[in-house]
Amino acid sequence: MVQNFDDTTVDSDSSIRPSWEGIGPKGKSILVTGGGGFIGSHVVDSLVEHNEVRVLDNFTSGFRSNVHPDATVIEGDMRNEAVLEEAMAGADIVFHEAALVSVTKSIEAPKQSHEMNVSATVDVLDHARREDARVVLASSAAIYGAPQSLPISEDHPKNPMSPYGLDKLMADRYARFYHEQYGLETVTLRYFNAYGPRQVANAYSGVVSIFIDQAQNGEPITVEGDGSQARDFIHVSDIVQANLRAATADVSGEAFNVGTGNSITIQKLANVIHSIVDSKSEVYYREVRSDDISQSRADISKIESMLGYGPTVDLQTGLETLSPENKSVK
């Protein structure tokens, strides 16, 4: 089904109580790769109060300003053996968020995408095996490609349409292999369309951050095609919740979708953002990308039943917290 929204704007002072409060590991030594990035930095925020947290990031796409001051920063490339060895030493849990996160960029530079998303992941898994560390791996709905049926379950056929999707599928399968072959504790999380604070609007970022940036700047809100494409947008707070549950659940060698189980058309998303920002921008339609899929929506029954996960942030509320009037947004 497609989630519906009114065209009215709710109080812009709305805020989100983190859906991860009260759950997650305690008293552990934890490494977050890509901890200066959009999702990684929120994972770090959820961990620092009760754990010793290290961040490994080269800050080519992430920002030092995103990193919580109570986390230890190791600046460097995870493909560097010495740097990774230092970061992994003594780790109990690794949240592997670092990646080249862009379908478009992976098409432009497939070798770099493979190095970042596959080779580096194997290095992380291999070091985790030496340290006997549990690994929570960030994957993507891009592994499924154009869905044959909705909602998309974890056993849906995998037909990635980009180097990024293919790389994430290989990393996903390496995680399962390391569990089956070496007994390494791994859990893979397949994110659907993430959005939230600290997501940077650029040519490679998510459509929510791009639309909000365009609306705030009075630029045309650019919708590709007729806007009938539908996506399952998941707030970063709920992605963090899924990570913490994956880190502590008595489950290993499994992969889970992380979404809401609902979807909204891109045209409706543009209209909702236009209303929330109270923008003078016009919605502009341009030619659709040839590699764009029509519909995407997660089946989240597996993660609900096995990890106790449940999305808590509806899209309307999540978008309101990103509006310029909301002073709590970071």
> What class would the helix/strand composition place it in?
alpha/beta
Low-confidence stretches: 1-14, 325-330
- CATH architectural group: 3-Layer(aba) Sandwich
* Biggest sheet strand line-up: 3-2-1-4-5-6-11
- Helical percentage: 25-40%
Evaluate the radius of gyration: 19 Å
The best one-word shape is: globular
User: Biggest β-sheet: count, sense, barrel?
Assistant: 7 strands, parallel
Number of separate structural domains: 1
Give the CATH level 1 class: Alpha Beta
Q: Ends: how far apart? A: 32 Å
Give me the number of helical elements.
10
Q: Let me know the CATH homologous superfamily.
A: NAD(P)-binding Rossmann-like Domain
Write down how many β-strands occur, each being a DSSP E stretch of 2 or more residues: 13
Model description:
The chain has about 325 residues and is an alpha/beta fold. It has one domain: 3-Layer(aba) Sandwich (Rossmann fold). It contains 10 helices and 13 strands. It has a 7-stranded parallel sheet with strand order 3-2-1-4-5-6-11, with helices on both faces. The chain has a two-stranded parallel sheet with strand order 7-10. α5 links the parallel β5 (about 135-140) and β6 (about 185-190). α1 crosses α7, α2 packs across α4 and α4 runs parallel beside α5. The longest helix has 22 residues, at about 110-130. The two termini are about 30 Å apart. Residues about 1-15 and about 325-330 have low confidence and may be disordered.
